[in-house]
Amino acid sequence: MQPSADLTPAVALFHSLSDPTRLAILERLAEGEARVVDLTGLLGAAQSTVSAHLACLRECGLVTGRPEGRQVFYSLTRPELMDLMTAAETLLAATGNQVALCPTYGTRGRTDATTDAQETRR
């Protein structure tokens, strides 16, 4: 059965949301504007890491930067993004976070893959 529409944009959207650092950035920006320095302090990540994730989110059209002097204040471009995040939290709660047990993408899957890779190297 063929999908009724091109799913490529949806795949790109969900891929852009598939990183924990990017999700944490989006959660913080849901509260209002933030600078890179604010995000590095919150995340405990290097400036270059935060900037790279912001660039990804900006290129995907999910965040925008507002320059003010030598600083840039980042914010969400679309409030609907938080509706998506809320829907995801609702779905996770309804499934009892079962997706975390997914052998491919879940927490257990990543641990097993890491263990397998380590064992292969030995």
From TrEMBL:
<dbReference type="InterPro" id="IPR036388">
    <property type="entry name" value="WH-like_DNA-bd_sf"/>
</dbReference>
<dbReference type="GO" id="GO:0003700">
    <property type="term" value="F:DNA-binding transcription factor activity"/>
</dbReference>
<keyword id="KW-0804">Transcription</keyword>
<dbReference type="InterPro" id="IPR011991">
    <property type="entry name" value="ArsR-like_HTH"/>
</dbReference>
<feature type="domain" description="HTH arsR-type">
    <location>
        <begin position="2"/>
        <end position="96"/>
    </location>
</feature>
<keyword id="KW-0805">Transcription regulation</keyword>
<dbReference type="InterPro" id="IPR051011">
    <property type="entry name" value="Metal_resp_trans_reg"/>
</dbReference>
<dbReference type="InterPro" id="IPR036390">
    <property type="entry name" value="WH_DNA-bd_sf"/>
</dbReference>
<dbReference type="Pfam" id="PF01022">
    <property type="entry name" value="HTH_5"/>
</dbReference>
<keyword id="KW-0238">DNA-binding</keyword>
<protein>
    <submittedName>
        <fullName>DNA-binding transcriptional regulator, ArsR family</fullName>
    </submittedName>
</protein>
<dbReference type="GO" id="GO:0003677">
    <property type="term" value="F:DNA binding"/>
</dbReference>
<dbReference type="InterPro" id="IPR001845">
    <property type="entry name" value="HTH_ArsR_DNA-bd_dom"/>
</dbReference>
